[in-house]
Amino acid sequence: MREGLQEDRDDGEEELLQKALRAPETDLRAFEQLILCYQKRIVADCRYMTRDESNAEDLAQEVFVKAFFGLSGFEGRSSFRHWLQRIKVHHCLNHIKKQEGKKRVSIDDGAVEESEQFQVPPTAHRDFEAMDDRERIAAILESLPSTLRVPLVMRDMDEISYEEIATSLHIGLSAVKMRIKRAREEFRRRYASA
Amino acid sequence: MSDQPIPKSSALSDEDPAAGEPIAELKELERETSAFFVRGVRKKIHRRTTTSQLLSFSWQMPGMAFAALGNMVIHILSALTIRKGE
User: Fold this and answer.
1) Distance CA B3, CA A80 (A)
2) What distance in Å separates the CA atoms of residue B22 and residue A54, rounded to the nearest whole number?
3) pTM, rounded to two decimals
4) Which end of chain A is less crowded, N or C, counting CB atoms within 10 A of the terminal residue's CB?
5) Which long-range contacts (CB under 8 A, 24 or more apart) does A158-163 make?
């Protein structure tokens, strides 16, 4: 049943994509329908990847703008969703680099994990009980350090392959696997103790 | 942005067993957007289109002016040649 619904949704999105590809540059109607399909997801991705509440919507909007101008280069060899996610990943990573460049730390720096600013505030756990499950998951995700959170979001929210995560983060494949494993363990531990 | 197919080798393969709950919930994680989200995208697209049109116009402008000037010179010279012939 769920698979059937998913197929219907995919067909609908494929039709919208074809309309958007055929539309003249001034006609944004079909593309706006695609935005409506993905906006919540992309905003959430931007939010949890960058941990930047104030800029998440702005980042997501820029992702869609980039997608619009890159649409003519989309050849359909991967799904539109994956293509959009890759634009989002690169855009968010650039944003993180800019932000962290200002703070003079890097997400690829292992020492960052020990840094005080990436530690969970002791009060953070206390509030988890009052939240519903979805909110709790979001709060735990947000509380993870960047070195763990970013690969986890890429893998478990965006379903990006390990190889591509390694390429995007400029780290080795084994490092990616290790970070994702640790991120999942840490996520489960915090979820269980919440 | 290239749209090469994403390798599915590690998408829930043997080396990546299903993450299970609550990690699986991450796939469904969404956030409400403001009512002006789509309008914001539209504005940014229009702004960028206008900027690129202005830029391309400013690149073409000197060429167009030069071509118009060249045409004028040709017209004047041909008019002078006709007058001389008379």
Assistant:
1) 9
2) 27
3) 0.73
4) N
5) A158/A45, A158/A85, A158/A88, A158/A89, A159/A82, A159/B11, A159/B27, A160/A82, A160/A85, A160/A86, A160/A89, A160/B6, A161/B6, A161/B7, A161/B8, A161/B9, A161/B10, A161/B11, A162/B10, A162/B16, A163/B7, A163/B9, A163/B10
Q: How far is B63 from chain A (nearest CA, A)?
A: 26
Cβ–Cβ gap A61/B40 under 8 Å: yes
The Cα A158–Cα A88 span in angstroms is 10
Q: Would the pLDDT of A177 be above 90?
A: yes
> Do the chains contact at B41 and A70, CB–CB below 8 Å?
no
Q: Does residue A169 contact residue A93 with C-beta atoms inside 8 Å?
A: yes
Among residues A89, A18, A99, the alpha carbon closest in space to that of A60 is found at A89
Four-residue CA torsion sign, A8, A14, A19, A20: positive
**Residues B33-45 as b or e (16 or more Cβ within 10 Å = b):** beeebbebbbebb
CA distance A131 to B42: 35
pLDDT band at B12 (very low <50, low <70, confident <90, very high): very low
Coil, strand, or helix at residue A63? Answer: helix
CB contact residues (below 8 A), chain A span 133-172, against chain B:
133-134, 137-138, 141, 152-153, 156-157, 159-164
ipTM over 0.85: no
Given a cut of 90, whether residue A149 has pLDDT beyond it is: yes
Residue A32's contacts (CB-CB under 8 Å, 6 or more residues apart) are B38, B41, B42
CA angle A154/A156/A158 to nearest 5° reads 50
In the structure encoding, which two tokens stand for residue B77, read together?
């010279």
CA B11/CA A90 separation, integer angstroms: 20
